[in-house]
């Protein structure tokens, strides 16, 4: 009876699209993309090279604005699209120069920690102290000093991605993923906690030491909160970290001078919306962000261009629902509208879609990130050099994690197209955080841009990978496996095709009941 009651509630939402569904069936509309009608690997390579030519794109920078304008030009060449923008006023953080001397000797700096406190051109001077991992930064050990910290590496067991853990299904036909193994990558996001603790302890600066060489982390951009830190911070590579620690090993006080010269500049950034009308005004929203350091970080927009081109070539009867392409800002400025909510521009769009959903204005959201991310292995450096280096794996891509909201038909749709397109090393997941049955949704984390849409109780499909190259602009288009990217692009265009005629009750699954629970007072995600 409960299912019948829910179906009765949903019928008004799907009814306007039913004539288009019937016409689509009569026209024998495609259920999958004809690969000959979709972008070739060469075309995707050209787009990725054009994207890379803009260089690093921090939120609101000139390069970021130029890239969004370029995306609009590319989309404007596709017939039938309608355009609008969501503007945001921000204070952009700009690095004007960094420097470091230790005991009077210059040490090469790879990058400032984004949103660091500015020292001005003169820098700050203080004794160095190395506080190893596991040692808290306190006033007793850090006040008045420049703290040296080693960046940690995360370790995630592969078992989490199988049905015994967070998984729904795994597609790894060659059995390349060790069920009992784990994945690890360096975690520069840890600098957030270090800089906050250092400020609270009265330290005057922080130096974060990577295990990777300078050449692989130069320009690294993380964490990207968008909120100012109260102390300056900088990254150094493994060789420079050894240079600093060797200076400290003598046991004598070592004076250092750290310069992080930066400025905050008022500017405007925008989310670009390109809408392709369909047989119903109810929207499928396809989303990716536009601010990033490298092509692999945000190559979702490139797939979106070609998805839009393909869908616009179909008769409107084969597009039962409207498709809106959202090129979102604020991914590298995660507190876009204030200090208390961490979600960037995706969160603001999610709130708008949440408000439209119960009126039948929104069907679902598909978020595209890191498609075709090539796998890099961290291996020992040659000739006894300190730390590790990243080396491209000649045959493997990174695991593509695809959290899908609480709908079995939706998960089966994704699973089927992933397998049909042979998108290897892909896990369809229930979420990327542990289940909490006291909240709606039960899995609050989706690992990236999909998280705010999921937390706003919208039906969401959110592919994302965790490439070790992610935060560094030193890895360009060579970090994308183009055949894998094309397969994934085809698969998720197939998914959008499948969402067009799918009954909204099937798209939504348990999201419908969860929205009712939320309205009755069940708490959402913190």
TrEMBL record:
SUPFAM superfamilies: Zn-dependent exopeptidases. Keywords: Signal. It comes from the Bacteria. Residues 1-22 form the signal peptide. Coiled coil: none annotated. This is PA domain-containing protein. It comes from Microtetraspora malaysiensis.
């Amino acid at each position: 009876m409960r299912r019948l009651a829910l179906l009765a509630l949903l019928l008004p939402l799907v009814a306007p699209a039913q004539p288009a569904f019937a016409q689509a069936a009569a026209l024998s509309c495609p259920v999958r993309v004809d690969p000959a009608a979709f972008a070739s690997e060469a075309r995707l390579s050209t787009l990725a090279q054009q994207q890379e030519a803009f260089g690093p794109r921090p939120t609101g920078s000139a390069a970021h604005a130029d890239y969004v304008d370029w995306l609009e030009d590319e989309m404007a060449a596709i017939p039938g699209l309608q355009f609008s923008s969501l503007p945001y006023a921000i204070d952009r953080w700009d690095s004007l120069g960094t420097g470091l001397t230790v005991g009077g000797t210059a040490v090469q700096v790879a990058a400032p920690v984004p949103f660091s406190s500015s020292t001005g051109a003169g820098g700050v001077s203080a004794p160095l102290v190395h506080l190893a991992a596991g040692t808290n930064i306190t006033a007793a050990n850090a006040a008045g000093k420049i703290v040296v910290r080693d960046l940690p590496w995360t370790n995630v067991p592969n078992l989490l991605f199988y049905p015994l853990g967070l998984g729904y299904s795994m597609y790894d036909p060659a059995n390349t993923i060790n069920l009992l193994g784990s994945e690890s990558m360096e975690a520069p996001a840890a600098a957030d906690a270090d800089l906050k603790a250092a400020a609270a302890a009265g330290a005057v600066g922080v130096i974060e030491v990577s295990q990777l060489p300078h050449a692989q982390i130069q320009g690294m951009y993380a964490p990207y909160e968008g909120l100012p830190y109260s102390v300056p911070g900088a990254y150094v590579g493994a060789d420079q970290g050894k240079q600093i620690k060797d200076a400290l090993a003598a046991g004598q006080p070592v004076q250092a001078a750290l310069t992080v010269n930066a400025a905050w500049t008022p500017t405007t950034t925008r989310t670009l919306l390109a809408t392709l009308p369909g047989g119903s005004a109810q929207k499928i929203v396809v989303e990716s962000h536009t601010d990033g350091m490298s092509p692999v970080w945000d190559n979702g927009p490139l797939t979106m261009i070609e998805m839009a081109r393909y869908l616009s070539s179909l008769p409107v009867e084969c597009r039962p629902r409207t498709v809106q392409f959202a090129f979102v800002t604020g991914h590298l400025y995660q507190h876009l509208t204030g200090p208390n909510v961490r979600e960037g521009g995706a969160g603001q769009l999610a709130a708008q879609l949440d408000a439209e959903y119960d009126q039948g204005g929104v069907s679902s959201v598909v978020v595209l990130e890191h498609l075709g991310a090539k796998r890099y292995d961290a291996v020992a450096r040659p000739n006894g050099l300190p730390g590790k280096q990243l080396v491209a794996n000649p045959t493997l891509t990174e695991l593509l994690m695809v959290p899908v909201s609480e709908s079995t038909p939706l998960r089966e749709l994704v699973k089927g197209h992933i397998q049909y397109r042979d998108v290897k090393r892909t896990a369809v997941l229930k979420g990327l955080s542990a289940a909490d049955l006291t909240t709606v949704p039960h899995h609050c984390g989706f690992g990236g841009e999909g998280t705010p849409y999921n937390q706003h109780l919208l039906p969401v499909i959110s592919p994302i990978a965790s490439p070790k190259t992610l935060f560094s602009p030193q890895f360009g288009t060579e970090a994308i496996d183009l055949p894998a990217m094309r397969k994934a692009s085809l698969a998720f265009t197939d998914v959008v095709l499948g969402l067009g005629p799918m009954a909204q009750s099937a798209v939504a699954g348990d999201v419908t009941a969860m929205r009712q629970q939320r309205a009755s007072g069940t708490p959402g995600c913190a």
